[in-house]
Please model this.
Amino acid sequence: MRINHLADTVQVRRRRGAKLAAVTAAALAGLLAVSGCAGPQPLAAERAVSAVPAATGWLHTDGGAIKDSNNNRYTIKATSWFGLETPDCVPHGLWGTLTIDEALANIKSMGFNTVRLPFSNECLSATSIKGSVNYWANRAYNLEGKRPLDVMDTIVARAKANGLQIILDRHRPTSADQSPLWYTSAVPETKWISDWKMLADRYKNAPTVIGADLHNEPYGAATWGRGAAATDWQAAATRAGNAVLASNPKLLIIVEGIENQGDGTSTWWGGGLADVGAKPVVLSTPNRVVYSPHDYPASLFAQKWFSNPAYPANLPAVWDKNWGYIQKQGIAPILLGEFGSALATESDRQWMKSIVSYLATNKMSYAYWSFNPNSGITGGLVKSDWRTPEADKLAALAPILTAMPAVTVPVPTPSPTATVKPSPTATPSASSKPTATPTPKPTAPSGGAAISATWKATSSWNGGYVASIEAKGLRIGSSWSVSWNDPHVARVVNSWGVKCTIVPKVSVTCTGSDWAANILPGLKRTAGVQLDSLKAPVNPVLTVK
Model:
C-alpha cells in the first residue's frame, strides 16, 4: 500500500432451490447410513448432485467471473497480512505471543477465505529472518534458523489447515520501499521474473496458493500499452504472466493498474485500469487474468472526486470509469486488491459504505488492507493486541463477509530442539519508513546488579515503538529489571519475557518474567516490549537491577 505522494508502509455461490435441497438430503442420508439407520434411498437427482467432485482449489476466469474447478462462481474475500516485504522478512505480530495459527484462525472467523501475503524479492533471497520472532510462542513451527522462504512455506501450510487460500503479492523489490516500476537497479526484470517462476514451481502442487499479484502499485512513470518498453507495465505484466503460467498454468495472474492513465487522468497508485478496454493483458494460457485496482478514502489523499458536491453519490461512476467496467462488460474479473480506512471521519465512513455496496452489488472479489493493526493511517482488523477484532470495521464489511463459526485446528507438534531463546522484533508500520536507531553500548553493572543490558528500538512508527532488551547475567539472580526514561510513553501494549510498567510521560520499567525471569552468569535473555509513545527515545540511559 502506498498512495500518491503519501508514504505508506500503509462464495462459492450457494446452490439454490432443488440443488441445495438435494445436497442436504444426500448428506442426511449419509449420516443415517453411518449411524446404522438405512433411511430412504436417495433420488436419482440427489445421486447426480452427490457425484459432483469436490472443488480442487484451483480457480479460473470466465468472462467477468472467477470460478472454481466445478465452474461455480467464486468470490475471493481476502485481507493482507504484511511483514514478509519489510526489513523483518516475517509477518508482523509474531514478536509477541501471537502464533501463526491464531492469526489465521482469526482471519477465517471474520469471514475471509483468503490471505494476501506481501513479500519482497530481498526477503525471498535472505538466508535468515532479519527481525526476530517469539520462537517460543511459535515453537510448533520450528522457525528458528529458517529462511523467510521457509516461513512462507509455513504460512501456506497453516493457511490450508485453517481453510484459507493464499495470494502471493510481490509488494516490493527490496524491503526498503516500494518502486514505481516492476524493476530497479538492485532487482532487474530478470530477477523479478525468475523469482516468480521459482514460486510458481514451488507451489504448483499446492492449490492453497491461488494467485500471483505480479507487482504492487505501479505509479509515476508506469504506462499501459504505450510509451517506452522500460515503462510499459501492460507489456511487462504479459511477459511475467506467461512466465509464471509456464511453471504453473493453474494460477490466477493478478495485474494491478497504474497511477497516470492514457487519457491524462490520475488516480491511486495501482488504481488506474481505464486503458484495459483498448489493450488488455492477453496471456498464452487463457482464463487466467484478474485485474486488481487499489482504492482509498480522502484521509489518505484528497483525490478530486472527494470534493465533488455530489459526493459520495459520484463514487460508483468514478469506479466504473477507472476499473469497474472491466468486470461489468465481461472482459475479466476484478479483485479490489487494497481498500481500507480507520473510519475516523464521516467522509471515510461514507466512502466505506459506498465501496462495500459497490462490491456487493457487482459481486466483486476484494482484499482488505489490512489485518495488521500497525498500518499507520488505516489501522487493521484487530486492535494493537493483535487479537481483539475491530468491531466497527467488521460491521462495515459485514455485507460482503460470511461469518464463520470458530473451529479448532490442530497445531503441529514441535520437533525436539535446543533451548529456545525468544527474541521478538517488529517492523515500522505500513505508513512509516524504518527509523535508524543507534544500538547502545551495554550498560556497565553497578551496585551488585545481576545483569548488564542493551536496548534497541527495533521498530518505530507514528505513535509507538517496539524495544528489544538483551540482558546478560553477571551473577545468579532470581530477578532482574531494566528501566529507561521516555517522556512520551502512554501505554504498554504488549510484552514478552518481561512484565513492564510505566510512569506516563516519564519512564518505563521492565522486569524479567516467565522463561526469562531467572538469570545465570553468562546467560543471555532477549525480551521485548511494544509501547504507545509519540516518539521512541534514542540511546536512553538504562538503569539495571
In short: The first helix runs from residue 17 to 35. The longest strand covers residues 451-461. The two ends are 43 Å apart (CA to CA). Residues 133 and 424 are 4 Å apart (CA to CA).
